[in-house]
Design a protein that fits this description.
4 helices, alpha+beta, four-stranded antiparallel β-sheet
Length: about 150
């Protein structure tokens, strides 16, 4: 399974109960297809870069999950037919190459070559969070200055 990131922009006039139901439906779709939710992060209401329909704002949500590719296709199909979703984007999160400690042995050159090599998909990689929340804090400040 690969790690994916889903960014949802929902209509700002959607009631909170309906927003929660939509998020539950999306997470259930991922889980039903064999995936696992890592983190759901609400970003709140933000001004859009351009007007979508009659809306100038949207409610943003970020969902980080592990799933097979078939789960992503099914999730996107469901999001495309949901009226409350103004925009969505699913991207694959690249995991960093794992670093192995260099042992103090006479064969240091062979081990150094493995350090920069990308990990195999079968290799166990520790789960870490890749969401940089500082970017979400900078966006409102930049919008206020304009």
């Amino acid at each position: 399974m690969r790690r994916y990131e889903l960014m949802l922009v929902l209509r700002p006039d959607t009631p909170d109960e309906q927003v929660q139901a939509l998020l539950d439906r999306a997470t259930r779709s991922i889980a039903a297809a064999g995936g696992q939710i890592v983190k759901v992060s609400p970003w709140g209401r933000r001004r859009l870069a351009y007007q979508i329909g009659q809306h100038r704002e949207g409610s943003y949500f970020l969902v980080l999950f592990d799933a097979p590719a078939t789960a992503v296709a099914e999730l996107e199909r469901g999001l495309n037919i949901t009226e409350e979703v103004m925009r969505h984007l699913v991207t694959r999160v690249e995991r960093p190459a794992s670093r192995r400690p260099i042992a103090d042995s006479g064969e240091g050159e062979d081990e150094e070559e493995d350090i920069g090599a990308p990990p195999d998909d079968d290799e166990d990689i520790p789960d870490t969070e890749f969401i940089d929340e500082s970017e979400s804090e900078a966006a409102p400040a930049a919008a206020d200055r304009a």
